[in-house]
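re: ur question from earlier - yeah i can do the single chain one, its not a big deal. heres the input i used so u can compare w yours
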Amino acid sequence: MDRKWDLSQLYTSFKDQKFIQDIEHVKEQLIEFEKYPNLDKTEENLIQYLKQENLLSDTIEKLFSYVNLVMNADTTDDLAMKNASVLEDILASFANTNAKIQRWIADFDFQQFQNQYILEHLFILCEMKEQSQYLLDNESEAVLANMRINGSSAWSKYKDQLISSMTVFIDDKEYPLTEVLNMAYSKDKAIRKKAYEAEIASYQKVEQGVASALNAIKGESIAVAKMRGYGSVLEKTLKDSRMTQKTLDALLKTIQKSLPMFEKYFQVKAQHLGYAKGLPWYEMYAPIMNIQSEYPYEKGCDFVVKQFYSFSKNLGDYAQKAIQNNWIDVYPRKSKVGGAFCQNLHCIQESRFLLNYGNDLSDVITMAHELGHGFHGHCLNQQTALNAEYPMPIAETASTFCETIVKKAALKTATPQQKLMILENELSDCAQVIVDIYSRFLFESRFIQKREKGPLSVDEIKQLMIEAQKEAYGEGLDHHQLHPYMWTWKPHYYEAEYAFYNFPYAFGLLLAKGLYALYQKQGDSFALTYEKFLSLTGQMNLEDMGKSIGIDLQDENFWQNSIQMIADDLEQFYQLLNQVSD
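and the output i got, formated as tokens:
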């Protein structure tokens, strides 16, 4: 069974009259918006703008989401690519007017208004006022928007086509890359090793094209940040993330201090698997225990839903609904993008999920992770479109929290061997989100620094990747068996508007650990606190969100307490490993 997602709640096809009508409606609305910069700065006009903007945002989200979902399910779909360009052209034509509107809003004195609808949007309005200082002149904004269509956006699509169309040959048999990536979790060492070696070799066919895309996209990010007056690409990312440098520094310092702990974990695992010089890259996901742990999709769904219900009825009901209503595109196939993601659809109060499910426990955890994203969107459904948009770092919190629910609940009824397997999965995931994410942060920081002087060659990019991995993993991994091509298929590097989409994962993981600690203290009553917290994530900066539940995100002690939860799991893991080995 294919188990592809059902997109009919959006549109039935690109020929659907509703799709065509919505495009025309957006064009009409964008023309209508041209009036605002010329209107008086009155309460009535501001309310009218906010209401119209919320309706327009939902329609634009509906159109773009449908196009992107179709394109991610099949990157060779010509109609999807054509319509993506059409929509980008329409929005690019609005850049001039949008800049004028932002300046119009920036001149308002919001303190004089007491209208409830305006007060509900006060955070967003103040943010727009602050961001107006980074606007270019109206004509330049229009030029930049149009250039992006044929710049970073086009390069990103090109990279997706290169990677999704890749095939990997193992023993003269052809596999899509997504299926080969899943082989890293195989119980057969020979398969893991062959998959890794074949994967590495296959990138040589596309490395030049992908390197060109990366150089172009990061070059655009650097140029735009400078043009707008940001001190760096990272400063722009932090502003967009509603996060201070002090919070990021506290997070990074805590990660750096934790690296020896993870280095020891990889060394212990390497020794257990018979490696003397650290763990080869292809063994990072090797199972410690060779016990039966296959999770066909139906079994995985039942497992996730059951554990979600152990936290709250609302979370369990949500997961059940997503599965039963075919919101999930499940299995890998040729021309489908790799990895996994959730697309929240505020416009129809639903979500869609892309997986590349491979019947392993890690795939079950990935499903829980993506459903967590969806539940976050579900908690925001009663907000307006403007108040439902949250920054990158908080985006990974609900997903990681749901992972933790599933793993902790599973441990309660597991045998020692099963506990070891679950803990190994948890620690492997934590190592990815702490150590590998740190290596990606180092790589992207250094790439951008060097890119300011000119494009980098494939060899230079690979060298930066290897150096970042050595620094992050230390002696935990075999330095002769690393992954020089990790920059090729990870989509996070290829969005010009979202640079440094790496540290948000570590932020989300460790914040989720902190939230789970609160859950352990408060018990069942925490579910309502949690849902309220998620419902407000579009209306505060990150530091204020933390304060709302008694957390200081600028304090290293908070992050260290979250790291300690991982350290506790490591101690339990070592004890179980010794017991089972004896």
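Residues 104 and 281 are 54 Å apart (CA to CA). not sure if urs matches, ping me
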